[in-house]
Every structure is written in C-alpha cells, then in structure tokens.
Specification:
The structure is a single chain. It is built from 14 helices and 18 strands. The chain is α+β, with helices and mostly antiparallel strands and 478 residues long. The strands form 4 sheets. It has an 8-stranded mixed β-sheet with strand order 10-9-18-16-17-15-13-14, with helices on both faces. The radius of gyration is 32 Å and the shape is elongated.
Length: 478
C-alpha cells in the first residue's frame, strides 16, 4: 500500500509524506527538481534523522502525490473564489434585499453593528458628486462608507477582530502582568481583567495648569458674589478618567484626579460656593458605584450623591435601597466604543416617585414611569439603558419646598427624581454636557425660574471645557 500527503512549506514546492508498505519517509521536494529531494529518513527507533540527497521516489508515488496536489489546488481555488464572491456580492445582495423589503436576521446584516464603533455610518453620495469631490477623494470615501454599511455579519466581524487583537495583547501581557491593557491595538480604552471592566485612559495634566478649570472656578465665584440669596453648589463626579483607583494612573506622567479637581475648584470658587464629590477607595468600591461597561454611575451612587447634596441644602435624605430594572443587561458607551462587550445588571431606586411630574417638550410623565425606556426595543435597551432610563427632562414638579436649577451633563439626569423629592420645582439645563452650547446666561435662567439654589453636576472634563463652549453663560443679566 502506498499513500502520499502533501502540504506547502516556506522555500519549498511541496512537503510529502510517502508510505511504502510498513516503511515511511519524509521528503522536502525542491522547486527545481520535482520528484527528487534532499530527504530525511528515520533511523530505526532512535528518533534520529540522517540526511540524504538525490534520492528518487518511484513514478507511481510521484503520480499519486501530483494528483493530490492538483485536487488540493482546485479545492483551494474553489474556496478562495467562494469567499471572494461572498465578499463582493454580499453588500450588493444586502442592498438589494433592503430596497425590495426582504427581511433578514439582524445578525446577518449591519443592523447589530449600528451601536458599535466602526459600525453603520451615515453618508450621502449625492452630496459628493462634484468634480472637486471626485478628484479630492471625497466621493471614493463616501462610496467606501456606503458599501461598508452593507457588509454581511458586520457586528460579528468587528467584535471578532477586536477580540482577536485583545487576546494577542493579553498573551503578551502574561509576561508583564499589567493590571490593564488596551482593548485592541491603538484603542483609547483599557480592559481590566480582574474586574471584567472597560475604563478610559486617565487624564494626564496638572489641574492647577488647566486654564479651563481655573476659569470656571473664577466665573462661579463671581456669579455667587453677585447673586445674594442664591445658594450655589458644584458636584464633581468621580468618573474613571479622573478616578484615583484607575489602574493606569501610575503609567501617566501627571495625575488629574477627582480630589485634585475638587481642591482646585474650592480654592478658586471661594467660600460662597460649596464643592462636593467623593472618591472610591478601591477598584471593587469603584465598580460597586459605577458601571463596568460605561462611565455613568449606578442608581446606588446617584442616590448617595443626592444625599450629600441634600445634607448641604438642609433637605431630607432619601433611602438608598435599589431594585433590579425589568429589562436586558446593559452594555454602555465604553463597551460599544471599545468593541469589548461587557455587561451590567441595571437597577433603580426603590423609592416611590409617583407624586413627581416630569416634563419635556410638552409631554409629561410621573416619576415612577420611564416611557422612553419602556417603549424602546430590547436591543436599544441593551445598548442605551442609561440614556433611555434617565431621560433628559427639562422641568419637574416635586414634593418638597423651594426651587432649584440643575446645570448638568448626563450624570445629572439620574438626580432629577431625587431632587424632585426635595424641591417643589426643578429646572434642568444640559449646558454642562460636553456637546452642549448655549447663549443663555445663568443669571437670566435663575431670574426666569425664580430658583433659590443652583446645583452643578458633572465630571471634571466638562467643567474644564465649559467656558470655552459657553463663553456668555456667567455674563451678568441685562
């Protein structure tokens, strides 16, 4: 019985295993001399090998090997052609199916990639048809983007590619044993294997050299001095980028931590402004307060922050008990943007906010309702829990006394209901949000709503960029 097997080898045409009867030989066939090889033949049972040269196998063995070679090449060509056709025809088929209304599983289309970094991107080919766009490459980029929106199984491909890179990084980290490492090559996020969490790179600068932060503190002090009878408080959220417990903090040249930001604001804003905030003691403590997949805080940390504000404002504190949210697990912004899927089990306060009335664009709902979340799809709930559950209401009627103006980023939306339990009226401005710009002035907002208290809630980065985005916010009322 004779049997031949071949495989490719670097620098050689083929690699053959030839079995003749009970004897077997291993041969590497040179490119220039088919059928002739420098071979290594086993010597007895010792496992040693000796080299031979110019040894010719029988014609029959060579023919068998050559046939296997031909079959293998044809199979390789078929597989390659099939993969190429799928790659080229897949976007066309998906585009056609969408136009004729054929329903396909979301995992097969780019739908599941909508929420992921590098997923579906909007583009308009008709706006890129000018000669300048064509010559400048704008039209080509728009076509590439549009084709990319119809890649089959795009979400799976994105996540698998990122996971492959992350596993390679983790393998190399076996020697260094760093507590965290990038979620993929060149990523802006870090994976913490001990916690199964994704975090941002820490900010690296001295808060005393942050002109935007210093300017905010100065402007806040001036407003407080000019607004007698209005209490002012600024709460600094311990987001991962400024958290002292971020495991990458020792790797940056200069630290920019929450406690340092609080100290700077206290020094610049003066005694008329109260600056609040709390740091975590450890990673376990931090991820008990904040999501592992996102930068936002959990309901338990939001109510702890409210109670700190309530103690300052001489309001009653609220119970801190929480209950699970009826919905899927949450994969937040860090997980989506890093293509490192981490899940959290969301919770909500167990307190009864039924007497609270929340308003936005003329629509109202009670404090116990979360209509935006309840009416969302399961996929939307999974990826965007925080933004849906804590809707960006602009006003609420509460159960307490007095009026408060809340100037916040997205962290503040989780405080709307607790603040409504302590105040009769809550007005909310999202001017502190990183993407927000407004021409309104704080003095005019306070005058219009008659607020006796102003509370700022946000993370350090948004305090730092606030004046640049809203240069007239602290201007005196005309």
């Amino acid at each position: 019985m004779r049997f031949a097997f071949f495989a490719g080898g670097p620098g050689w045409e083929r690699l053959y295993f030839v079995v003749v009867g009970s004897e077997w030989r291993f041969a590497i066939w040179a490119i220039s001399s088919p059928g002739v090889a420098g071979i290594r033949v086993p010597e007895g049972k010792s496992g040693k090998w000796r080299a031979g040269a110019g040894v010719r196998f029988g014609n029959r063995d060579a023919r068998v090997a050559e046939r296997i070679n031909v079959v293998g090449q044809r199979l390789q060509s078929v597989l390659f052609s099939g993969a190429l056709c799928l790659l080229l025809c897949g976007p066309i088929c998906l585009f056609a199916a969408e136009r004729v209304g054929i329903s396909l599983p979301s995992w097969f289309t780019a739908e599941d990639a909508t929420y992921l970094s590098g997923g579906v991107e909007k583009t308009d080919l008709f706006d890129r048809q000018g000669l300048r766009e064509i010559l400048g490459g704008g039209f080509r980029e728009a076509v590439e983007t549009e084709v990319g929106n119809y890649i089959p199984c795009k979400a799976t491909a994105l996540l698998a590619n990122a996971a492959l890179q992350r596993n390679a990084i983790a393998l190399s980290n076996a020697l260094c044993q760093w507590p965290c490492y990038p979620t993929s090559f060149g990523a802006e996020y870090l994976y913490i294997p001990e916690q199964g969490a994704v975090t941002a790179w820490p900010r690296s600068t001295d808060p005393l050299e942050d002109g935007g932060l210093l300017n905010f503190g100065d402007q806040l002090r001036a407003f407080a001095a000019d607004s007698k009878g209005v209490s002012v408080c600024a709460y600094v959220v311990d987001m991962s980028a400024t958290a002292r417990t971020n495991p990458a903090c020792p790797l940056v040249s200069e630290s920019y931590t929450t406690s340092q930001v609080i100290d700077v604001l206290e020094g610049r804003a003066g005694d008329a402004v109260t600056v609040l905030g709390a740091e975590s003691d450890s990673l376990d403590d931090y991820y008990g307060r904040f999501f592992r997949s996102d930068h936002h805080w959990r309901a338990s940390e939001a109510i702890r922050a409210y109670n700190e504000i309530a103690a300052w404002a001489d309001k009653d504190e609220l119970p801190t008990a929480t209950v699970p949210v009826d919905g899927p697990n949450y994969s937040g912004a860090y997980a989506r943007n890093s293509l490192c899927i981490v899940e959290d089990a969301p919770s909500q306060l167990a307190y009864d906010f039924d007497s609270v009335r929340l308003e936005k664009s003329g629509a109202t709902e009670s404090g116990n309702e979360h209509k935006l979340y309840e009416n969302a799809t399961e996929q939307n709930k999974h990826w965007r829990f925080y933004d849906l559950f804590y809707d960006s209401f602009t006003r609420s009627e509460g159960m307490g006394g007095g009026s408060v103006l809340l100037v916040c980023d997205s962290f503040g939306y989780a405080l709307l209901r607790p603040l409504s339990a302590g105040y009769e009226e809550v007005l909310c401005s999202s001017a502190l949000h990183a993407s927000s710009k407004t021409d309104a002035s704080l003095a005019k907002l306070v005058e219009d709503c008659g607020a006796d208290t102003v509370v700022f809630v946000g993370h350090a980065g948004n305090y730092s960029s606030f004046i640049k985005r809203n240069p007239s916010f602290f201007a005196a009322s005309q």
